[in-house]
Amino acid sequence: MNKDKRKLEELTEELLLLNSEAESYYLNQVRKEGYEPDFFGVVKPFADRVKIVSDEWKPLAEQFVLNVKPSHLYPIQIGHTHDNLEVVAIKSFYPKTGLKKQIETFKSVAFVLHQLRDELKAFQEEVE
């Protein structure tokens, strides 16, 4: 479990950074008028990176939640977060994406990732 837990911590941190990067890009670049995304140069590489990390993260996160049973985190949230990461990875590059819905998706992803990170730290403190 220790090796998996360390990997889960790394992947969670990476997803937090990717979510933040997508949010920043969306708010600071995409929302400007006349923006046209370069699908193969920007969108696809970013989406592929998010998919690789989130696909590796999901089973580790689900297993952790099932084993540890944190009080405020459930396996279904892991699945929803995985799905939301795919939305973030693609829709963040398109100006027609609704601002309010996209901001809520960023917040939802960040909330679950922060909850998981906090539970991982708490679990580590219990073990030590």
Which consecutive residue ranges, at least 5 long each, have pLDDT under 50?
Answer: none
Distance between the termini: 14 Å
Q: Strand percentage, roughly?
A: under 5%
Mean pLDDT: 92
InterPro entries: YppE-like, YppE-like_sf
Coiled coil: 1-28
Pfam families: DUF1798
Protein name: YppE family protein
Task: Tell me about this structure.
The structure is a single chain. The two termini are 14 Å apart. The protein has helices at residues 2-30, 39-68, 75-91, 99-127. The chain is built from four helices and no strands. Helices cover 82% and strands 0% of the residues. The protein is mainly α and 128 residues long. The radius of gyration is 16 Å and the shape is elongated.
Which key features would you list for this structure?
single chain, 128 residues, 82% helix, YppE-like_sf, YppE-like
Summarize the SSE layout with pairings.
Elements: H1 2-30, H2 39-68, H3 75-91, H4 99-127
Helix pairs in contact: 1-2, 1-4, 2-3, 3-4
Short recap of the structure:
This is YppE family protein. Pfam families: DUF1798. This protein has 128 residues and is mainly α.
